[in-house]
Amino acid sequence: MYLGRIPRFSPSFSPAEALISARFLALQPEDEPEVRRFEKEFAAYIGARHAIMTPSARYAFYLLLQAMGIGPGDEVVIPGLTYFAIPSMAVTAGVRPVFADIGLTTHVLDPAAFEAAITPKTKAVVPTHLYGTPCDMDAILAVARKHGVKVIEDCAQSTGARYKHVRVGNLGDAAYYTFGLTKNITTLSGAMITTNDDQVAAFVRKEIDTSTPAGLKKSAKEAVTGLAMMVATNPLVYPFTLHQAIRIGNLLGKDPIHDRFGEEEVLYKEVPKSFRTSRPRAVQAAVGMKQIERIEALNGARVKNGRYLDEHLANVPGLTVPTYAPGAEPIYMSFVVHHDKRDALMKALLRRGVDTTTGYMNDCSDHPLFPEFRRPCPNAARVKQEQVHIPVHPNLDQKDLSHMVEAVRSACLELGR
């Protein structure tokens, strides 16, 4: 019997990764061989010369600024719609974040807005391949080369996406990725840097190798959480457990999923000590190796689902669907639509069994954390107010997709009356 209850996400963490986690946590082998093996496999997958595993994407970004000699008095162009931690780490490095607007429906950096944000102090740009959608990299690279600006790709949500047949992360000067439980691939926690620049790689490698290994308690906790989320989002379990918790939370003005995986938005006055005491461990790399084996199947399922939603939601009244730059090959990490009655739409969809979210991205161009860096980014502001993430994860089947399309269509028609 089809129950029509669809979770907003389902982790890529599977029983295979759970068994690997248990084995490596029990045996506690030497870290370096396994981490190096994963780095080599990841570099080959992206097509880059170097890959270095790091504790987090935000620390990876900070290290890349340091490696490129970008510091106090310099500026870096960042999309207005982004995760708070990236401009926050720029400030930590003494770098001024200059926000540039995004495409209204692509959700990624507008090349014209990037060029308009450049000053003599601009040293780098961060094209964020947000929601798994590659930026218009030909245009961005042309502007960057014209002005002598380094390109640091943000691939936190786009591992495996391509632009004109080249994987993102191998288009600019360097890139960073993140592998949390909610991403398209996971290493329980942790991140990666890729680059073809030997000097940048050597700098990052030295910083990571001289840091202290992470405690295994966090990896164990994330493995348990991943296993719990795998069970809780199972179609036979979800309707009677997590879906009910979300409904109750919604009535109380809470979001238990957002609360579990979100975090407080803060400025870092200095690099947190934990960044230098969290060198990735063998268990994380071993899980990553298994995920690399599965990534094409996982991303392929996302692409299939995303293209179905592209086609079947294109003409729903009152709904705006995403668009993509020419040459972009998205992996559909998220399927983000717009509606001017966003909150009402989300409630209507939850009543129809479809769980959605507004996500974790913010309009940082007009954010209380960055008052001295405010800069008009009207598209980022509008997306922040209107965006809804529709489920697009690999564990959806055709019944789920059909149910979601009909739920979105009927909810939008209801709101349009």
Any overview of this molecule?
- The protein has 417 residues and is of the alpha/beta class.
- The chain has 14 helices and 14 strands.
- It has helices spanning 15-27, 31-46, 57-67, 85-92, 111-117, 137-147, 198-209, 216-232, 242-251, 256-261, 282-312, 342-351, 378-386, 398-415, and strands at residues 50-54, 75-79, 81-82, 96-100, 122-125, 150-154, 162-163, 166-167, 174-178, 191-195, 328-329, 335-338, 362-363, 387-390.
- Strand 7 and strand 8 (166-167) form a beta hairpin.
- The mean pLDDT is 96.
Radius of gyration using CA atoms only? 21 Å
Strand-residue proportion: 5-15%
The coarse silhouette is globular
Strand order, biggest sheet? 1-10-9-6-5-2-4
- SSE run: HHEHEEHEHEHEEEEEHHHHHEEHEHEH
Specify the helix fraction band: 40-55%
- Enumerate how many helices there are, as a single number: 14
